[in-house]
Structure formats: C-alpha cells, structure tokens
Write a structure and sequence with these properties.
heterodimer, A: about 300 residues, alpha+beta, Alpha-Beta Plaits, 2 domains, four-stranded antiparallel beta sheet, about 5% strand, B: about 220 residues, alpha/beta, six-stranded mixed beta sheet, 10 strands, about 25% strand
Chain lengths: ~300, ~220
C-alpha cells in the first residue's frame, strides 16, 4: 500500500495548497536564514571587535620622522627596542609597504597617488594573552624617548560602531523570531483548514480506531515532507545570497581590522545551518499542536 | 451483553434533546434494525454505540467495557473492534478499492502482504474481486457501499453498525447488501442497521427497534 497522504489531496491538490505551502515555507526559511546570518555576523563582529580592541593598537611613524632619504635611520630600531622592553606587549609586527598600499586602496585612495606619496611606517601592537594594552603609558614612553609617532587605538575607532552592530544583531534576531512565529501560524492555519475540509475522512479514520497520535502523525508527516523541501531550497537560496554579500563583508572586515578566526567562521556557519532545521521543527510542532488540539475535541 | 445502554441522554449544544433516556441491551449475535423517520435519533443512537458521540448523561457498556472509565487511547482500541458503514461510503477518492478497504489494517500496522491477501479475499467475497484497483469514482453506488462494508469488517469486528447503508442504492442492490450483512451475522457478528426503508426491513424478518423523537418506542403488541 502506498503511504497514506490524504491531507493535501482532492480540492487541496486542485488548488495547489501543498505546493503553495512549500513556497511560503521556502520564503520564510530563506528570510529567517539570511536574518539569522546577519544576526550572527553582526553579533560575531561585535564580539570579535570587543575582544580585539582591548588588546590591539597601531603605531604610526610619520614619514617626516624618518630619515631625509626616506630610510628608517635609527628610529625603527629604537622603537623596536622600546616595545620589546615592555613585558605586556607581544613582538610588534611591521606592516609592509604593499600591505599599507592595499589598505589605502580599500579606503578609496587611487594607485597613482599612492605611488608618489610617502607612506608612514605602521606597526601592529598586540598585548600578550592576559595583559591589557596601556596606551597612555606607552605614549609617555615614546615621548620620553623623543620618538615622534602616533598611537591609533582600535577601541577609539570602534567605540561607537560596536554598539550599533550589537543593536543590528539583536534586531535581526528579533526578525528571525517573528519569521518563525509567522511560519508556525501559517502551518497552524493550513492544518486547521485541512481539519475542516477533510473532516469526513478524518472522522472515518477516527471511527476505524485511529487514535489522536496516529492522526496527528499524518499531519506531521505531510508538513515535515514539505518543510524539508522548503528548508533545503530556502537554505541554498540564502547561502547563495550570503555568498554574494561575503565579498563586501570581507572588505569591511579588512578595513576595520576585525578578522574572525577559522573556528569562529565555522561556528557562525553552523548556527546559520541550524535555522532551517529549527524551522522544520517549528513547522512540525505547529502541525502537531493544531491537530492534537482539534482532535481532542472529538469524542 | 455485547452492548448495554442505560438511561442515555444526548443533548445538542442548544440543549435540544437528541436522545432521551435510551435503555437498550444487545446480545452477541443479534441482528437489529433501527427504524424511524428522519431526525428521530437513529444515527445519533448508532454513533453513541460506535463511540463517535459522547452521551450527555447515562452509562454505556460495550464489549464488556464501561466506556465512561476509559481513556482516549483505550477508546480508540475499542473502536478497532467495531465496524461502521455510513450512508455516504466515505471512501478516500484517490485510493483504490483495495487500499480503501485496507485502511483499518494499515492503521493497526498490519504486515502489507498479509493485508493485501486478506483484503483481496474479502473484496472477492463482497463481489468485487475484479474491481480491486478501481478508484471510488469508477465504482457504482452499490459497489462503493460494498467496499465500505469490506472496510468495516476487515478487522473482524464484534459489532457492525450501519447507518442507512442502502440509502443511496436501488432496491435490488440494497437487498444484495443486506444479504451480505445477514451472512456476516451468521458468522457471529452482531449487526445493527439504522434505516427508514421499512419495505426492506419487512422482507428481512429481523428484530426491529423503532425510535421517535429520541425515544425508543415499545414494540407493537403481539410482535
């Protein structure tokens, strides 16, 4: 015997209710996945930023303080010596000229200007694990050593930016919640409509001894089948959309010095993949709840 | 007693009495016609006996079980020991005759090959051996009712309840159907048929209970 798929047959099939339900679920799952990715993305960047800004800074040595021929004269060795003497700092990294050019290009400076312009020396400073970057003290040390340099704190740059990211992340998460509620309501209304339209058939099954659980399982099976299709299609569409947006995100992360680790990216992708699974669960639970609630009213 | 109803009352939501003080006992192997005009309460009484309608007051004992003390799961299990045939056969349109008749066994988790064999035999017995793959739309009214009858008895029910099973067919087909009910009764199934077709009832020569205004009428004197 073929599987009993009687809930979306007859007039439901004629009106393509089942197919439209898949379409609705696909759109909602797509939206939920994209919004969840934005929530994780914004939240993750804010978290990475929070973690990074406490321990990172950039030391900028202007071209004017270097030798007249553009050489680094003795400034760089002195700066290195000073920084190495600080136990709270990891060995500093000098940003290469090529890197500096790429960075400036990302900010919109054209390459012709970059070729002629004297570039400052940039050094990435990072506190050793467990230590905190004490920028005022570092500034004093540089001044005392008569070294002309500027310390750019990432914390100052991102101070206003991170709360905005956190807010956007919460808002996106709220939208995910709303989309899931709409999904549950949509499924509940569809099941209610099936219960009303197919009442004669369901009542006959009830008379044959089908218990609430068996009848509910029919609803859940029909919804699950469609929800899985919708979850697959919705996720693929969302992944494609996000892949297109990833290029922009990469540039943004580069210019804001926020680089999530490979593990953090994997966790974010995992969370994103959880959304369609959660949507299938919500759809099945809504179908079960609506069917069970209605059937309990029967003798 | 196979069925025992004591002082059963059923009221509608608007408190209108549908059944009033029904007391009835049926022994195993009985064959009873329930007659009365439309709206007399025949279907409601049948539905009460078939656990499809909860009485407002009164007690029901069915196959030795006090229904009032049973939970929903046990009631479903008890329903599997009953057979129900309705005036509109309520076959599922997209399923074939054999699939429709197999439904109760499918719901009970029967082994597919055994189910197919058993249902094929049963449909052959009701005269539809050559219509196994036909869908309801391809069957006549009488054939549809025979599929519904096969579906009702596929679980070998102790009690078979039929609500106007001959209401939508001509007299000749109706008699053939009633003959099948009689055969089942001879095999030990208790049968209760609600009908308003008095001429058919008269030809069968079985016990008849009359109901009017939700009240069972006393049998006429000398019957």
């Amino acid at each position: 015997m073929r599987p009993l798929t009687l809930l979306f047959e007859g007039s439901f099939r004629e009106r393509r209710v089942g197919a439209n339900l898949v379409l609705l679920m696909t759109l909602l799952i797509y939206l939920a996945t994209v919004m969840a990715s934005l929530a994780v993305g914004f939240g993750g960047i804010a978290w990475v930023g929070e973690r990074t800004i406490q321990s990172r800074a950039t030391l900028v040595i202007p071209p004017a303080s270097l030798g007249s021929d553009g050489s680094t004269s003795d400034t760089l060795p002195r700066v290195f010596a000073l920084l190495k003497a600080d136990p709270s700092l990891a060995p500093p990294r000098v940003v290469t000229t090529d890197e500096s050019r790429r960075l400036l290009q990302a900010w919109g400076v054209d390459s012709a200007t970059l070729a002629d312009a004297p570039l400052p020396i940039l050094m990435d400073l990072e506190a050793v694990p467990g230590a905190r970057l004490d920028l005022p003290r570092l500034k004093q040390t540089l001044v005392a050593a008569k070294i002309t340099a500027r310390l750019d704190s990432l914390a100052d740059t991102l101070a206003t930016f991170l709360p905005l990211l956190r807010g956007l992340s919460i808002a996106a998460l709220g939208v995910v919640g709303l989309v899931l509620i709409v999904l549950a309501l949509g499924i509940a209304f569809a099941c209610r409509s099936v219960l009303t339209t197919q009442r004669d058939t369901l009542e006959m099954l009830h008379l044959m001894g089908a218990d609430d659980k068996t009848l509910t399982r029919l609803f859940r099976a029909e919804i699950r089948k469609r929800a899985f299709v919708a979850a697959g299609v919705g996720f693929v569409l969302a992944a494609a959309t996000l892949a297109m947006g990833a290029m922009g995100a990469r540039t943004f992360l580069d210019i804001s010095f926020l680089h999530p680790t490979q593990d953090e990216i994997l966790v974010a992708a995992g969370l994103m993949a959880l959304v369609p699974v959660l949507a299938v669960f919500v759809a099945c639970a809504a179908a079960r709840r609506m069917a069970m609630g209605q059937l309990r009213a029967w003798p | 007693m196979l069925v025992s109803l004591h002082n059963v009352h059923v009221r509608s939501r608007t408190k209108r009495p549908i059944l009033a003080g029904i007391t009835l006992e049926l022994e195993p192997g009985a064959f009873v016609f329930l007659t009365g005009p439309s709206g007399a309460g025949k279907s409601s009484l049948l539905r009460v006996m078939g656990l499809a309608l909860r009485p407002t007051t009164g007690s029901i004992t069915l196959l030795g079980h006090d229904v009032a003390t049973m939970n929903r799961r046990s009631l479903s299990a008890l329903r599997r020991r009953l057979g129900f045939v309705l005036q509109d056969s309520r076959l599922i349109p997209h399923l074939t005759a054999i699939e429709n008749a197999s439904l109760p066994l499918w719901l009970a988790g029967g082994e597919p090959e055994a189910v197919r064999r058993h249902v094929t035999e049963l449909l052959t017995w009701v005269g539809l051996g050559d219509r196994l793959k036909a869908r309801p739309a391809e069957l006549s009214g009488g054939e549809q009712q025979r599929v519904a009858l096969a579906r009702a008895i596929v679980n070998k029910p102790a009690l078979l309840l039929a609500d106007e099973p001959t209401g939508n067919v001509d007299d000749q087909t109706a008699l053939k159907l009633l003959y099948l009910f009689t055969e089942l009764n001879k095999m030990g199934t208790t049968v209760v048929i609600a009908t308003h077709q008095h001429h058919l009832v008269a030809r069968m020569g079985k016990t008849t209970l009359a109901i009017q205004g939700g009240v069972l009428q006393p049998p006429p004197e000398g019957s």
